[in-house]
Design goal:
GO cellular component, one term: nucleus
Largest sheet: none
Shape: elongated
Number of helices: 25
Helix content: 55-70%
Protein name: RNA polymerase I-specific transcription initiation factor RRN3-like isoform X2
GO biological process, one term: transcription initiation at RNA polymerase I promoter
Organism: Cucurbita moschata (Winter crookneck squash)
Order of helices and strands: HHHHHHHHHHHHHHHHHHHHHHHHH
Family: Belongs to the RRN3 family.
Strand content: under 5%
Length: 533
């Protein structure tokens, strides 16, 4: 019997029967739990009915009774929560790619996660949800929708995308950049379903943040990210779940994610593809996360520079893209982050001193010749900014002709093309993008060191603060205030671990990482044309 087909009196009687039956004998528990979970979703004929006010009322009547019954059974049958989580996850795998049904099912999963049984079923449910998002994600292929021009660099392409998409911007959001078009995703059932599910997850994270349990949920998301998303083949959207969690709590979750990725990259025990995927995520995250402090970005950069320097000392050999791909991925990450962040770092005196003292020149002029191997478009943009900033000027002249890639970069990127793996490029899902925009840095928002338009056009400091809010505040602080400011103190990793320990959060260096479930990372284009998606 489906609760959706009956009035309140019959529903109450049926719920009472199911609860009593489950409690009466252990052999009926699974059948009763299965019946209740089945009622998470309405019959197919209710699709249009649920869009009406009366349909929403019926939905609330049914689901409130279902969750109350699940709670009552779990209170009376100690093993019921364990059986419930297995049933919920199993049915999740069988839900078809129909947006309306899948969305309602996930709503109920998240209701369980934040409800009274969260302690027993929350971890399993969140992990299953991330797996489901990833399954939907990989069903959306790039090959049919990408039309990149390989004669142009990634920054040039993104700016062109921004210009061509301005005509499609809604009036309410005309001041925000829209780097990529999503026209080809219109009518794509899987993409629309994924968009809806990620938005539900975003809203759930907001609820967790309000309830003060975001750190607990983030612990689960981070472990799930390491086990599946990090090494997933062709992941394009699922990674934005943990990005949004970091945006809601940048000082703890945001910093922890960056430190974890850096740990994975410098670890000698990790698989090469895993380490390269981790540094790709880290570079993209540091570049695109508007909520990240400039101090944290500088600290992580120094750690990457130090690792590359030590690697160069122990490998004093000539250029070899295939044998030293981890080194090249580290060098490219450093340059990519500085393309986005160089100016914001240089405008803070203390951080500018730290950046100028980093031995970046020694790394880039090493015999391994990273400037010849890394993506030409990134190297060209970095050299242009570094020269103006007096950070680094190569002794030889490099002519790239605006190329996006080279034979060397293809070699070090491997068949997975990790040289072109930029997981936090602008999100192509329309609804998700609206949530991410306030926390996201688009290339059109970045002011390179060679951009002097603000002097000619009288740009104010407020324009700068809009992109990196912490920068202006730091310049205005006096020495005493600077000593206590989060953005103006040294970001100490040991202090960070101690803080996590006091908050009963798993320390960053003790999270397990299963190498036996590694999947090959994907080749993701750094930017898409406005008509492509």
């Amino acid at each position: 019997m489906s609760l959706w087909d009956y009035g309140p009196n019959v529903m109450d009687a049926l719920i009472e029967l199911i609860t009593s039956l489950a409690v009466s004998s252990g052999k009926y528990v699974d059948s009763c739990l299965d019946m209740l979970v089945t009622n998470f979703m309405p019959p197919h004929s209710y699709k249009d009915f649920l869009k009406k006010p009366h349909g929403l009322t019926r939905k609330d009547e049914v689901l409130s009774r279902v969750h109350t019954a699940l709670k009552d059974i779990s209170d009376l049958v100690p093993l019921a929560p364990l059986r419930l989580e297995l049933i919920v996850v199993h049915k999740m795998q069988r839900v078809f790619f129909k947006e309306s049904l899948t969305t309602i099912y996930v709503e109920n999963m998240l209701r369980l996660e934040k409800g009274a049984m969260s302690e027993f079923v929350g971890r399993k449910i969140l992990t299953a949800l991330v797996d489901k998002l990833l399954d939907l994600d990989v069903e959306i292929g790039w090959d049919d929708i990408l039309q990149d021009d390989f004669s142009k660099g990634i920054f040039e392409i993104e700016l062109e995308d921004d210009n061509e998409s301005t005509d499609d911007i809604d009036e309410d959001s005309s001041e925000l950049p829209r780097e990529l078009s999503r026209k080809s995703l219109g009518g794509n059932v899987i993409a629309e379903t994924l968009d809806s599910l990620i938005v539900l997850t975003f809203e759930h994270l907001e609820s967790c943040e309000r309830d003060g349990r975001l750190s607990e949920v983030f612990d689960i998301l981070l472990l799930s990210f390491q086990r599946t998303v990090l090494t997933a083949y062709k992941s394009k959207f699922a990674q934005f779940v943990i990005f949004y969690a970091c945006a809601l709590d940048p000082e703890v979750c945001g910093a922890r994610f960056a430190v974890t990725l850096a740990d994975m990259f410098v670890s000698c025990n990790g698989l090469p593809l895993t380490r390269m995927s981790a540094i790709s995520y880290l570079a993209s995250y540091l570049s695109r996360g508007k909520f990240l402090s400039t101090s944290l970005v500088t600290t992580i950069l120094k750690r990457l520079v130090d690792w590359c320097l030590e690697y160069g000392k122990t490998h004093d050999v000539d250029l070899n893209p295939k044998a030293h791909k981890i080194f090249y991925s580290g060098c490219q990450a450093i340059m990519y982050v500085l393309c986005f962040r160089m100016r914001s770092i240089l405008e803070i005196p203390r951080l500018k001193s730290q950046l100028l003292l980093m031995p970046i020149g020694r790394i880039l002029t090493h015999r391994l010749s990273p400037l010849k191997v890394c993506l030409p478009s990134i190297v060209e943009e970095f050299l242009r900014q570094a020269k103006v900033a007096n950070l680094f000027t190569p002794s030889e002249t490099f002519i790239f002709n605006g190329l996006l890639e080279s034979e060397y970069s293809k070699t070090f990127g491997g068949i997975e093309r990790l040289d072109m793996f930029f997981p936090y490029d602008p999100c192509l899902l329309k609804r998700c993008d609206r949530y991410l925009r306030p926390y996201f840095v688009y290339w059109s928002m970045v002011r390179p060191t060679y951009d002097e338009e603000e002097e000619d056009e009288g740009s104010s400091d407020e324009d700068v603060a809009e992109v990196f809010p912490d920068k202006i505040e730091e310049n205005l602080m006096d020495d005493e205030a600077m000593a206590t400011s989060y953005d103006n103190r040294e970001f100490d990793l040991d202090e960070f671990d101690n803080a996590l320990d006091k908050m009963s959060i798993t320390p960053r260096n003790s999270l397990p990482f299963r190498q036996d479930c590694v999947r090959m990372p994907s080749r993701i284009r750094p930017s898409m044309s406005p008509e492509s998606l």
